[in-house]
Amino acid sequence: MMNRIKIISTAQIEQVIMLVKCSKPFRHQLSENNVYLVIEILTKFSNKSVSYRLIDNEGYPSIYDADRFEVVSNKIDNFAVLLNDDGIILSHELIVNSELNIKSIDGFWGLFIEDDIDAKQILKEVIKDLSIKEKYNSTTFSVI
Fold this sequence. Notes:
3 helices; alpha+beta; single chain
């Protein structure tokens, strides 16, 4: 449960994955050899898993197991490390510090799913910021 989140650090974090290439396609959401922008990295203590929240082929920020991907680039900054009862989340500061995200990281994503205009705008800013840092065309990653 995500109701007890502690921000460990909002300092620059290096050597964390930013761009990944799909090695195991998934239905129409992920295509083999496509490159995807990682929005968040999620780890779970209970099953020792790592997942990525990324913009899939449908333009939706979905969560997929990390073992479907190969690392293309591992440059990253402006990410915060969050610790909860079941794992660690690396998320962009614009999402973590959003007023939409007062009590938990699920607050932001919950509002995004409900088509909140502010949440969608923040995600577009995150994509633009990450794309600029990667020198990657942000129009490649369109959000629904």
